[in-house]
Design brief:
With about 280 residues, the protein is of the alpha+beta class. It has a domain at about 1-125 and about 240-280. It has helices spanning about 50-65, 75-95, 100-125, 125-150, 155-160, 170-190, 195-215, 220-230, 240-255; strands spanning about 5-10, 15-20, 25-30, 35-40. A four-stranded antiparallel beta sheet has the order 1-2-3-4, sandwiched between helices. The protein starts with 5 loop residues before the first strand and ends in a 27-residue tail after the last helix. Keywords: Membrane, Plasmid, Transmembrane, Transmembrane helix. Pfam families: DUF1385.
Length: about 280
Amino acid sequence: MDLNKLMGGMALPHGVVLMSTERVALGYYDKEGTLQLYTRELNNPSGGLKGLWTFFLEAARALWKTYPHQGEFRSVVAGVLAGVLTGIPIGLFLSRASLLPAWQMLLLSTSLVVLMFLALYRFYPPFRQGLQRMARYHGAEHKMIWALEKGEVSREGVRQQPLLHPACGSNLFALYLPFYLLSFPQSLLAPGFWWLQLLILPLLFPVFGWMRRHPEHPLARRLLALGYRFQRHTLAEPGEAELEAAWRALQGLEMETPSTSTVEGVRERCDYRRVKPRQAR
């Protein structure tokens, strides 16, 4: 694998995405526990913000194309529709009735989102299990990226890699979070300027890129320590099933001429069956 062409990886709730400038490949499990492959050819996306946009767009496309083959798809769609059909009427009623000032509306809506997430995690097992499974896929994706960067691309080489990675998007989120929390009180006092918070993120991209390129710099180490603290809540030691999904994605990425059985929208069946994940260390 040419590292100059590698754009990165991402964990999805049912597999691992790897992306180069030529192709996106997703190794995932269907509802029967069979390892599958999804690939899509790309037109040499450039780097920078355009490359980042392409990366997230293609990951979303892979999720959309393959999620109907997951057993929990209906429950996820039902949950989203229930939230939308419940939240929109309540929001419109409170907004039109002007029962609360704008800053209290913002605080209330933020609190409701947090409480809904906590309630789903506590009382809806498929949601909690999905997050735990995604954390293991996240760990498998990190190990695969490390193995590619170190030139130790073998099944045993991937298993021996560390979990934390300086280029993880969790580090960017951890860098953004303090600025968001500092600006949140002002957004309560002036709700019309909430969009100013969105301007902080593009300003942090150069800092994030510098951190990735100079992880040994004293300042970068301190910033990465914050990101690693957050990463530990989004990662878990992968089991054999998650590692095989990452390996399958790499195989799809390295194909010189993908066969028609692995082109967009068609999955290639494999004999590998899901095994119980190892306990997190």
